[in-house]
Write a structure and sequence with these properties.
- The structure is a single chain.
- The protein has 364 residues and is an alpha/beta fold.
- It has three domains: 72 residues; 186 residues, P-loop containing nucleotide triphosphate hydrolases (Rossmann fold), CATH 3.40.50; 83 residues, Orthogonal Bundle (Helicase, Ruva Protein, domain 3).
- Helix content is 51%, strand content 10%.
- Strands 2-3-6-1-7 form a five-stranded parallel beta sheet, sandwiched between helices.
- The longest helix has 28 residues.
- The protein starts with a helix and ends with a helix.
């Protein structure tokens, strides 16, 4: 064994580690808006790893530091979007994307009006407004109307699926002392948005956990996240540093409210979304769903047409459904069958009539 070669290899490896530590230091120092206290905390962690590297024992600490710095430098500490304070624009967005639900749209316009008024008068519009909670059955547009609110304000939009969370650590992070440590969904949503004032939808908060004890824990954390008196210093356990959520516009959705705590309900404005009527579904299908589904299937508009008298059969092939997801799947099934016929040369265009509609409706 060549001792000099071994020593040279160890030296090169150590030099590489120090180069990586310098790169981490550069990340810390160049991060825009990084709070000074957090910056000093990260630099102290860096110094400790630097000392350990000189002694030849640094691997686990280096990985922890590297991951932590990658997280904190991605958080949008100062970057934000400018709100579009135009109520006519907001009304137009809602009308363009949503047919019917007049009462719901009116409530949202009123809500946005108070936000705009407070903003123009120099107040924190978010802290002055309760959190919107959309309540209704699946498929009636709770998520899409939340997206429209973000579009109306020209804000970034992020959705967090609350029903898929198994513990509160997934929401507020896991401490760095654990090997599987990572930031929680709130921090991840902020990083994904890239700005400190996005619209974040907490989707299906009534489904956070089937366990009553865990549900109480979730409600307590949600209260901390949504309460303007507390969320200006939200503490993610991985970050272990106060994160200001006061500029975030939180919107919540739920199928039912019976599993939501009274303290949390007290801070929210409930907007109930009722089931669509058959006539509303027909208009939604014609105006919004059908053109996009035809295009996504690779069809031209003239290659698939539907007789006006048949829309009720398309809307309700198997009975009543509160939302429009079944309707969407039905239309997608029809377009796939037509696309196949055209590809196989069996048809050049299809017009659905009372005589042939059963051939194209999917059989679930």
């Amino acid at each position: 064994m060549d001792i000099n070669s071994s020593t040279s290899a160890d030296s090169s490896k150590t030099d590489l580690v120090f180069d990586e530590l310098k790169a981490i230091e550069t990340k810390i120092n160049s991060c825009e808006g990084l709070p000074e206290d957090l910056k000093q905390k990260a630099l102290q962690m860096l110094q400790r790893v630097n000392r350990m590297a000189k002694l030849g024992s640094y691997s686990s600490e280096f990985e922890i530091l590297s991951k932590y710095v990658d997280v904190i430098v991605q958080i949008p500490w100062v970057k934000r979007t400018d709100d579009k304070l135009d109520i006519e624009f907001s009304k137009n967005v809602l009308e363009t994307h949503h047919f019917g639900i007049i009462d719901v749209k009116e409530r949202i316009v009123e809500y946005l009006s108070t936000m705009i008024l407070n903003k123009k008068r120099g107040e924190n519009a978010i802290s002055k407004s309760p959190v919107i909670l959309f309540v209704g059955l699946q498929g009636i547009g709770k998520t899409t109307i939340s997206i429209s609110i973000a579009e109306a304000l020209q804000r970034k939009f992020v959705r967090i699926a609350m029903g898929g969370l198994g513990s509160v650590t997934e929401l507020r992070g896991r401490s760095r002392v654990y090997p599987e440590a990572e930031p929680g969904q709130i921090v991840k949503a902020m990083i994904k948005a890239g700005v400190r004032n996005p619209v974040i939808l907490l989707d299906e908060i009534d489904k956070t956990s089937g366990s009553e004890g865990l549900r109480f824990d979730f409600m307590a954390v949600l209260l901390e996240i949504l309460d303007p008196a507390q969320n200006n210093a939200f503490r993610d356990q991985y970050l272990d540093f106060p994160l200001d959520l006061s500029e975030v516009m939180f919107v919540c959705s739920a199928n039912y409210t019976n599993t939501i705590s009274a303290a949390l309900m007290d801070r929210m404005e409930v907007i109930k979304m009722s089931a669509y009527t058959d006539q509303e579904k027909i208009e939604i299908a014609k105006r919004y769903l059908f053109p996009g589904i035809v295009k996504n299937a690779g069809l031209n508009p003239e290659e698939l047409t539907i007789d006006d008298t048949l829309w009720i059969n398309v809307v309700r092939p198997f009975g009543f459904d509160a939302g429009i997801r079944t309707l969407q799947r039905t239309l997608e099934g029809v377009t796939r069958k037509v696309a196949r016929e055209i590809v196989e040369g069996k048809s050049t265009a299809v017009h659905l009539t009372n005589e042939n509609i059963k051939m194209y409706l999917p059989k679930y």
